[in-house]
Amino acid sequence: MSSHHRYTAAPSKNRKDWANIRALTPYLWEYRGRVLFALGCLILAKVTNVGVPLILKRLVDNLDLHADPMVVLPVALLLAYGALRLSASLFNELRDVLFTRVRYRAMRRLTLRTLEHLHKLALRFHLERKTGAISRDLARGAASLSTLLNYLTFSILPILVEFLLVAGYLVTQYDIVFTIIIFGSVVVYVAFTFAVTNWRMEYRLAMNRYESQANNEAIESLINYETVKYFGNEKIELSRCDNTLEKWEDNAVISQASMSALNFGQAAIIAVGVTFIMFFAAAEVRNGDMSIGDFVLVNAFLLQLFIPLGFLGIVYRQMKHSLTDMDQLVTLLDEVPEIKDRPDAGPLNVTQGEVRFEHVAFAYQPNRPILHDIDFTIPAGKKIAIVGASGAGKSTLARLLFRFYDVGQGRVLIDGQDISEVTQASLRATIGIVPQDTVLFNESLQYNLAYAQPSASQDDIIEAVKLAQLHDFVQSLPEGYDTVVGERGLKLSGGEKQRVAIARAILKRPRILIFDEATSALDSESEQAILGALKQASAEHTTLVIAHRLSTIVDADQILVMENGRIVERGDHNLLLGQSGVYARLWALQQTERLETPLTT
After folding, report:
1. Helices in 438-581 by DSSP H: which ranges?
2. Do 40 and 129 sit in the same domain of this protein?
3. DSSP β-bridge partners for residue 516
């Protein structure tokens, strides 16, 4: 089973959440000084936070002892109370400021690492994996890292630190019963919140799912408006959408009811805890073992702990979702590249540019072979053409030469060097291609043209554009080279995109050139004009031409005819015509079609 199946499999219920959290640590290590400083501010914020009830206790006791209104107010304690509250806010804000750089740098590093990894994965992975799904996982993974760091730093750790500080004070200063009541209440509160959140999450997810489904059904019925009208099926569309919305409504009601139950349950636990605390504290005050200030203090501690816990359900749910998203990204990063440079791989050393396919066999899937014993040589500076019906395996040869896949049997050699033993970067720097389907970036023409050689001068670009018969078109555009071509180049015609691809191939100046049906999108007049450019571009280059129109390759030094993944004929144009075989039959068929097709403007 190939490696990509591991990535697309459904995530296990027993995900390695702690392993995924540990996977975050390298992204924090770069700013370890900031992290430690931020954690120091966090602890100081919590110390001052816990100090506020302590000052409040002393204030109450002081005022209780000096009940006479003429006695001077305890100014120092009041100032200390205000200072502690201000300090808690200051340390919290300092923590946020310090950790912001860490959080966003970690997101940046993770996004770039994932993108780099995706570029290393083989073409097979990208053909079988939906781009939208990869984009979603990339965005969600970076966001999940931010969410996890955010909640760990601003919610989980502060609560733990505050718990430890409060526990330490209560155990050393008061009867153990107060510690038991407070932390018993907290444990019950947390357990109840987790249990109800897990239970209601199922309904919330179902609610979201049905909402998306109903929205999709409504939009689809509007997109297919004419079809709905053709068959008069408005009621069917409304009924289908209503059935889904009914399920959404039922789950939404349960979700809201469960939220109310969660809120009431949390309030009930707090109320019971506070009541028990007040009961025991009042008894201690009555017995003279505690002051009024102590009574205020233990209640303040209880309420202070429950304030952040009020968001625990939301934090828990978001962390569960983030860990799931994080797991998808970690699994993606674990995907092993199918095509890798060998540890001892060196750069390709091109002296002549001879290409050899040596008894090559290949299959995309084990049970579906594509190529069988392909054996031919393209001498340095010569032009070899490959022709044949669709599905014969012609374009697969170009993919193997670029090493997007490794051959199943045999070898592909350039100047006697096995391409699987050299670096992929040096191999691909040597080869230029004009593909059948040219996909452009949604950037300017200038950007797309210079992509082949980012260091090229403007004069070099213009020269390549002229050779590709594209200069007049660019000059006619209001924004010229700054014209944005649209997503995937959709603002350009097929012929214009192929001219861009030809200009890029010329600009790259590679030793080996591949033309994969490079004039398929051109009309006959444009094709003839551009064949001269192709001939000039391929002069003194080793050239492989994959062709459908045989008229474009009559000047090839050798023509290979493929059928069902095998080479069935080879020779030059005249030799193959004289054999009255597959090539001669294809030639006659295309000449007939050419005569029967009316000229169009």
Report:
1. 445-450, 458-467, 471-476, 494-508, 524-537, 573-579
2. yes
3. 546
Determine phi and psi for 362, rounding to 5 degrees: -155, 145
Q: Are residues 126 and 190 in the same domain?
A: no
Nearest to 441 by CA among 474, 481, 488, 483: 488
Domain count, the chain: 3
Beta strands 368-378; 355-365: pairing state: antiparallel
Largest CA distance in the chain: 125
- At 141, give phi and psi (nearest 5°): -65, -45
Q: Which domain holds residue 55?
A: 1-173+314-338
Identify the CATH number of the domain in which residue 30 sits: 1.20.1560.10
**pLDDT value at 6 more than 70:** no
Neighbours of 583 (CB within 10 A): 24
Residues 431, 432, 436, 438, Cα dihedral to 10°: 120
Q: What three-state secondary structure class fits 334?
A: coil
Check whether residue 320 and residue 282 sit in a common domain. no
DSSP characters over 206-275: HHHHHHHHHHHHHHHHHHTHHHHHHHT-HHHHHHHHHHHHHHHHHHHHHHHHHHHHHHHHHHHHHHHHHH
Q: Is the pTM of this model over 0.85?
A: no
68-106 pLDDT, tens digit per residue, is 554 445 677 678 777 777 887 887 788 777 777 777 888
CA distances, 161 to each of 7, 42, 100, 167, 188 (Å): 38, 8, 20, 10, 19
Partners of 369 in the beta sheet?
A: 363
Domain boundary among 273, 289, 305: 289
- CA torsion 113-118-119-123 (nearest 10°) is 170
Distance of CA 409 to the CA centre of its chain: 34
Task: Please tell me whether residue 451 adopts helix, strand or coil conformation.
Answer: coil
